[in-house]
Design a protein that fits this description.
The protein is mostly helical. It has a domain of 43 residues. Helix content is 68%, strand content 0%. Helix 1 packs antiparallel against helix 2 and helix 2 runs antiparallel to helix 3.
Length: 81
C-alpha cells in the first residue's frame, strides 16, 4: 500500500509543479521539464527506475502544464525567455 501512496504523492507534486509561462506551449515545455526532473528523483528514491520516473513525470508534467491556465498555476517567466 505504501508504494501506491508514494505514487499518489509524486503525482500530486508533479501537478503542483507543472508549469510556468503564459502560453500553453511554454507551460507544456516547462511542465515536462519540471515533471521529468521530479519523476527521475522520485523514481530513484522509491527504489524504482529513474528513467521510467522521468518519462512518466515528463508526460504528466507536460500535460498538466499544457492543460492548465496561467491564472491556475503560475511559477513565473520561463528561463528561456
Amino acid at each position: 500500500m505504501a508504494k501506491l501512496e508514494n505514487k499518489i504523492v509524486a503525482a500530486v507534486l508533479i501537478a503542483l509543479l507543472s508549469a510556468c509561462g503564459s502560453t500553453p506551449k511554454d507551460r507544456a515545455i516547462s511542465g515536462a521539464g519540471i515533471g521529468a526532473g521530479v519523476g527521475a528523483v522520485g523514481g530513484a528514491l522509491m527504489g524504482g527506475d529513474a528513467v521510467k520516473g522521468a518519462v512518466v513525470g515528463g508526460v504528466v508534467g507536460g500535460a498538466a502544464g499544457g492543460l492548465t491556465k496561467e491564472k491556475d498555476v503560475n511559477l513565473g517567466k520561463p528561463v528561456w525567455q
